[in-house]
Amino acid sequence: MAGKNPGVSTRSKGAIKFSGLPSPLDKTEPPTFRQIIQYSYFLMNTYPHLSCYGISKLIANDVINIWKAVNPRLPLLNENSVVVKVNMLCFQKAKQINRKHLPAAQTKFWKEKIDTLFDISSCSCKLPILSCDNINVKCDKENCQTKHIICTCPLKRKVPTEDREYLKDQRSKIGPKGTFQLGPIDKTAIKKRKGEREIQQKTSPIESTSSIQDHVSPSTSLSHSSSPSDEADYIQPDSSLKVPYNLTKIPRFALELVRGDISSNLGASLGNALLLDLRAMALI
Fold first, then answer.
1. Within a domain: 63
2. Which domain holds residue 140?
3. Structure pTM?
4. Considering 172, 197, 224, which residue would you say is the last residue of a domain?
5. Is residue 28 part of a domain?
6. Co-location of 150 and 201 in the same domain
7. Distances in whole angstroms, Cα of residue 114 to Cα of each of 32, 89, 107, 189
8. Phi, psi of 4 (to 5 degrees)
9. How many domains does the chain have?
10. Is residue 166 a contact partner of residue 71, using CB atoms and an 8 Å limit?
């Protein structure tokens, strides 16, 4: 019956499956084609009465959540499109390869592609790297060392400037890990830092807001008026704050603060100081 979960078994139960053994999905990185297929085998074993569409929907939901967790600003395909993409991969191509029903040329193509990114970004361009004098870059900075990665997609599908290197890295990776990764939480280090902060709070007086203002001059703040095109790259400040915090988003820095269990106040101060130092060194 169409749509029925066929299970992992085919005509030969001992045969090696395309992409390998059943496996849960690693949630620290956007998955590859191999990981998606292995996860489908795992779910078929776990939920033998679930339909192919039902399993495809579970996989699609998990994959979307992983992408949103590792980089929430990337434009993604809608859920239905991801479900269709998963179903085509797991219950058409993989099934045909396992049953040896796919032509040799297509089988070779999928075997070569198996360890690359299962891409659900709505960006369809190649994210080319262009020189400063290119018409799409218009960079007049002397001795510029910036890697100008351009997204030529329409506005709704355009990748933010600061996230293009990440997506380009993911698309070029072979295997589950790219250059940019989420590291595991170091619980021992977190516990140690908590103890150090508690001791410091007991032995050191808390610096007043006025003393902070003496050290951070408004003239050195990186905050500036944003144009309509910049609105997505900046956070609206809290009107109750008296200190001129920098409003530039640094998502990977913020992610590591969360994973390291750093308090919001300390994280904001560290982030602002980091950006001020980068500005002083003319790196931004």
1. no
2. 129-172
3. 0.59
4. 172
5. no
6. no
7. 7, 10, 10, 37
8. -80, 140
9. 2
10. yes
SS (H, E, C) the chain: CCCCCCCCCCCCCCCCCCCCCCCCCCCCCCCEHHHHHHHHHHHHHHCCCCCHHHHHHHHHHHHHHHHHHHCCCCCECCHHHHHHHHHHHHHHHHHHHHCCCCCHHHHHHHHHHCCCECCCECCCCCCCEECCCCCCCCCCCCCCCCCEECCCCCHHHCCCHHHHHHHHHHHHCCCCCCCCCCCCCCHHHHHHHHHHHHHHHHHCCCCCHHHHHHHCCHHHCCCCCCCHHHHHHECCCCCCCCCCCCCECCHHHHHHHHHCCCCHHHHHHHHHHHHHHHHHCCCC
- The tokens 């915090």 sit on which residue? 245
How confident is the model over 186-206, as pLDDT tens digits?
456 556 656 666 676 666 554
pLDDT, one tens digit per residue, over 64-93 is 999 999 999 999 999 999 999 999 999 999
Structure tokens, 178: 């790219």
- Which residue from 41, 81, 83 is spatially nearest to 61, judged by alpha carbons? 83
In a 10 Å sphere around its CB, with 0-12 CB exposed, 13-18 middle and 19+ buried, how is residue 165 labelled? Answer: middle
Q: Which two tokens mark 255?
A: 């992610």
